[in-house]
Amino acid sequence: MLNLRARHAIPVYLAGFTLTNIGVGGFTLAVGLAFYQDSGSATTFGLLVALEYAIGLVGQLVGGSVLDRYSTLAVALLTNSVRCVAVFIGGLSLLLTGALFPLLIAFLVSAFIRPQYRSASFVLARQVTPVAELKRINSLRAAFLPAAKLTGLGTVALLAARFSSGVVLCVLTVFFFIGSLGFAALGRLPQGEQTESDSARPTSIGESWRQLGAALRAVPGLCVHLVLSGMPATVTALASVLVAPVNHWVDGGSYGIAVLDGGVAVGALCSITVARRLATRTHLVGVACALSVAALLLLASSSTLLVAGISFWLLGVATTLGATTLDTFLQVRAAPEILGRLFITQECVISLTAILLLPVSGEFASDRGIDFTATVYAAVSAVYLVVFLLSFLLLGKRLFGARVEVLSDQAPHRSAVPS
């Protein structure tokens, strides 16, 4: 495989990341359309989404230890390739036989390996990027993610108007395949963290999680860091869930869907410059939380498409600033041997938060209205803001600056030092 120079590795990585997420963004919708066309009910797909979260939690428990025990690039390439093959087989079976069972298996396989792929992709970003460039690449990742998923949704919507679900799914595999080729082209990591010690690698799943537990106990503020990292992803998921009910509330029609969905993506893209310049400023986390509160309160204040569009734009800005800052701090503070486990723990926190908060959003929106729903989630964002402020007052720079190392069971736990 080609050994790319550092200046080429970053765009190749971003290309693989973006193309893969176009496929991810379209896959869930394509599966939903296939099951809806078969059953005529959205309930079946709702159950599948719940099952996806449950399978994803199992994948998270296994994935962290796998990632830190094996090559990051190999894990990213293998998981993405397996997903590509599974989606293709599911789509081809649906196209040729009309059978949904292979597609269900592909859906569950994708749910299981998604946390492992996401964690590998996160660690890979750190490995191909010099520390000085982390702010830039994380801001681009945060901005490209909603844009890629929106592109995936649009691609499926356009294809579904003319072709069957089987054809749509087979087309989506092209994005996964080219994304995998991008990762394969990286070859040996040009900026890889080759200094990590083999002795620090866990030899079993049990040891892997014992090391993680020791790090969480030893480093002040690390648990708070991982909890706060759930804010951008939770708000992004909430925005996706609220698009349809908000559009109905403001009577936006098909144009309104584009304004709301596009607003998040445009907000993310507009905030790239700020995120790149300020991503190592601790206060930017508080700014992101405060912007989320303001955006949701603004959404609750008026039932016009203009106000709703501005609110979703602000949510895009807030999530990009928050994700860029928190991801950069985690990549800088964590030793390579434990970074994968930390990110997958963060993913677990996000999943549990989503399971707790998102299912009630539909009930709130239908029974109590969008204004009440937005106010409730503004209060949730305010809780994140309060947690940040109190933690920063108590810990100062140690909140995001204390170094996270792998602590052996035999060695005494030493305090991490500010980076």
TrEMBL record:
One Pfam family per UniProt: MFS_1
Subcellular location: Cell membrane
Keyword Transmembrane helix belongs to the record: yes
Protein name: MFS transporter
Membrane topology, as annotated: Multi-pass membrane protein
Lineage of source species: Bacteria, Bacillati, Actinomycetota, Actinomycetes, Kitasatosporales
Keyword Transmembrane helix: yes
Principal location: membrane
Source organism (scientific name): Streptomyces violaceus
Entry keyword set: Cell membrane, Membrane, Transmembrane, Transmembrane helix
InterPro entries, per the entry: MFS, MFS_trans_sf
TM segment ranges: 12-36, 42-63, 95-113, 166-186, 218-243, 255-275, 282-300, 306-326, 338-360, 372-395
